[in-house]
Amino acid sequence: MVEKAASRARTTRMSGTERREQLVAVGRSVFAEKGFDMASVEEIAARAKVSKPIVYEHFGGKEGLYAVVVDREVSTLLGDLETSLQDQRSHPRVLMERAALAFLSYIDENEDGFRILVRDSPVSHAVGTFSSLLTDVAQRVEEILATQLRLHRYPARDAALYAQMLVGMVAYTGQWWLETRRPSKEIVAARMVNLSWYGLSALQKKPELRAGT
C-alpha cells in the first residue's frame, strides 16, 4: 500500500506554472546559501529533483533564474517601502518610522531574499540590484524631505544628499541586524528614527566644518 502511494507520488507531474514556482523557490534558497557564482544549475536541478534541461527550459540558465528571483525580491521590498510612505497626511517622523519598520520587517520575513539582494549580482544583471532599489527609495524620501525643508526655509537642494544618508543608514543597519537579530526590529526602528529625526530637527542652514582644513 505504501509502495503504491510512493509510486503515484513519483509519477505525479507538475504543471508548467507549478514547476516554475518550485524552481524559483529552490533557486532562491541556493542563491541565498551560496551566492550567484557558487550556485550551479546542477545543484538547483538536484534539489528540485528534476533534470538540468528542465531548468534551462524554464529560465534559459542560471542567469535567467537569478533575474527572476531578484526581480521578485526587489518588487516585494520596494512595494512594502512605498506603501509605508504613501500617506502624505502623516507627520514626516511617522513616515520615517513606518519605512524603517517596513524595511526591517522585510528582512525578518524574507531572510533568504535579503541575503540575495545584498550580495554582488552578476555584471549582466544591472537592473533590479540592491543599489538600484535603494536609489528608488532615496528618490521617494528626497521628495518628502524637500517638502519639509521648504516649509522650514532650508535649501531644498540638500534633500537629495540627506535622503542618501538616511537610506544608507537604514540599509547598513538592516544588514547588521540580519546577523544579530537583537534588539527587536521595533527597538531598532525606533533608535534609527530617533537618531535621524533629532539630527534633522537640529539642522544648521549652512553647516561648516569646525576643524581646520
Describe the structure in your own words:
There is one protein chain. This protein is mainly alpha-helical and 213 residues long. The chain has a domain of 133 residues: Tetracycline Repressor, domain 2, CATH 1.10.357.10. The protein is built from ten helices and no strands. Helix 2 crosses helix 3 and helix 5 packs antiparallel against helix 6. The N and C termini lie far apart (83 Å). The relative contact order is 0.09.
Brief account:
This is TetR family transcriptional regulator. GO terms for molecular function: DNA-binding transcription factor activity; transcription cis-regulatory region binding. The chain is mainly α and 213 residues long.
**What's the name of the CATH homologous superfamily of the domain at 70-202?**
Tetracycline Repressor, domain 2
**Helix segment tally:** 10
Report helical residue fraction. Answer: over 70%
Task: Report the sheet-strand fraction.
Answer: under 5%
Order of helices and strands: HHHHHHHHHH
Number of strands: 0
- Architecture per CATH nomenclature, i.e. the level-2 architecture of the domain at 70-202: Orthogonal Bundle
CA distance, first residue to last residue? 83 Å
Average of pLDDT: 87
Largest sheet: none
Radius of gyration: 22 Å
CATH class of the domain at 70-202: Mainly Alpha
CATH topology of the domain at 70-202: Tetracycline Repressor, domain 2
Q: Report low-confidence residues grouped into runs of 5 or more.
A: 5-11
Shape: elongated
Structural class determined from secondary elements? mainly alpha
